[in-house]
Design brief:
Two copies of one chain form a homodimer.
Chain A lengths: L6 H15 L6 H7 L4 H7 L3 H25 L4 H13 L4 H13 L4 H24 L4 H18 L7 H20 L2
The first copy, chain A, binds a DNA duplex through helix 2 and helix 3.
Chain lengths: ~190, ~190
DNA sequence: GAGCGACTATACGATAACGTATAGTCGCTC
DNA sequence: GAGCGACTATACGTTATCGTATAGTCGCTC
């Protein structure tokens, strides 16, 4: 009756659970129930829970790298690209992606494998953004520092729980200026 | 034979577990074992697991507020204070405090109570740091934005997993300049 | 040294999760 | 329409954890 579930489907739903409650909240039977099947199916596709987690990391790593490469490759205006990237983390339009990002990073604090994965992704993203800053005329060291600050801000910001929306919008606008626009005026 | 355990002791050890593995890793029996007693004692001091978690939040909230107030009250040179605060998060000297900070924030994503707690702490800290920036001559809006950027950087930075130590030191030095020193030259 | 308050130790029942085993179903091909 | 590969459903054993109950111990006071 139902269309067959692919490993992708399990992984996707597992990411939803990850976003909602962290790695530890990924329970196989709960996951199966959310997909309206029983856990028997899970063990067809996956060796065990660890296998799922591994494949989630691979999946996430690949997508993140594809995405950042795509975004920078298509770049014409570095400032616009930086502002766009910034928006990915500050906009309320992508709460899920944001939650996943944080959850994976939280996961990395307990798991070597996850830590290794985010290290790969971070290197890629920092290199990409540092490149943008260089094309705005920053020297190598400053470009790297600005990239580092840039991503720290992106992630750290989702950890701060303050302010009302309009107030926040104002603050973030100014932050964007400090992070991006200022670097071009030199 | 053993000196009696106070609720504080339980809470402290629970924070250690929190730092190591997140809220979900706080298991009562494991906690008791780490204190070399059995869980019977736990239920003498605490109504149940939720009670422990609540009291941990209260404890954390109080300490964080005391700390930030103390640090700012004793202030003579705002730049030095800002750099000192920055150091608290970047130095490797306080990995535990850092880990707790992140773990509590991660916890806040699953729990209303934790979210409310960090909101209180964040408000306090942002107000304190914004005050420092104002005393460096920043206008209100800019001071708030800089404070927001400042703390986002602090937390976000512990989420980034890249670079070797010497490289990182260099980057962080520059970030400190972008965040703090620059704001004074206006 | 009896008794009490503040605990700790042990044992228990309940639930939830993991992973396995086994039997069933469904859709496709031949 | 038989058979096969790709799954799903059900049932099971095991372990971890929660919370409770109950009995013990320890140190102090009177």
């Amino acid at each position: 009756m139902n269309i067959k579930l692919l490993p992708e489907d399990w992984i996707n739903e597992a990411f939803a659970m990850l976003a909602e409650g962290g790695v530890d909240s990924i329970k196989i039977e709960v996951l199966a129930k959310r997909l309206n099947v029983t856990k028997g199916g899970f063990y067809w596709h996956f060796k065990n829970r660890g296998d799922l987690l591994e494949r989630m990391l691979e999946h996430w790593c690949q997508r993140r790298i594809e995405t950042i490469r795509g975004q920078v490759a298509r770049e014409t205006d570095p400032v616009a690209t930086l502002n766009y990237l910034l928006g990915l983390y500050t906009d309320q339009t992508n709460p899920r992606g944001n939650a996943i990002e944080l959850a994976v990073r939280s996961w990395a604090r307990q798991s070597e494998a996850a830590a290794a994965t985010i290290a790969v992704v971070d290197r890629e993203r920092l290199a990409a953004v540092a490149g943008l800053f260089r094309s705005l005329g920053c020297a190598d060291a400053e470009a790297e520092a600005r990239a580092y600050l840039f991503y720290s801000y992106c992630f750290g910001q989702s950890l701060l729980a303050v302010g009302h929306q309009d107030e926040l919008d104002q603050i973030r606008l100014l932050c964007g200026r400090l992070l991006v626009t200022d670097s071009a005026h030199k």
